[in-house]
Design brief:
Elements: E1 2-14, E2 18-24, E3 29-55, E4 62-66, E5 74-80, E6 87-111
Antiparallel strand pairs: 1-6, 2-6, 3-4, 3-5, 3-6
Length: about 110
């Protein structure tokens, strides 16, 4: 089994929703795991939900697997099963009044 690990989002303060493109996924990908490390959360009722999105063509993306809403510093792991799509990206939706989330996202892919 081959394991590939890369940083999809470097640790920084994010104040608005956005995406991080993962590009074309290996055709023999058995599973993906997204590791989120949230170190600082501020604002009034801040909330962030991270969703893995997949695409057959790299143009139109569909929600695939979402993590739980994040409202405080901590870690979260989102496990993506074998049907992860041809292309992938991470979407993060941030809400609240003047929200700020300092976090990073690392992706681990396992292939047979």
């Amino acid at each position: 089994m081959t394991t590939t690990v890369f940083t999809a989002l470097a640790s920084a303060a994010y104040t608005a929703s956005g995406t991080a493109d993962l590009g074309a996924l290996p055709g023999d990908s058995d599973e993906l795991t997204i590791y989120l490390n949230v170190t600082v959360v501020s604002g009034t009722t801040p909330s962030m939900t991270v969703t893995y999105q997949s695409s057959p063509d790299g143009v139109t993306y569909y929600d695939h697997t979402a993590g739980a809403a994040i409202t405080a510093a901590g870690v979260q792991m989102i496990k993506i099963p074998t049907n992860s799509g041809t292309y992938g990206r991470i979407s993060y939706a941030i809400s609240g009044t003047t929200p700020s989330f300092t976090f990073s996202a690392v992706v681990e892919g396992k292939n047979r």
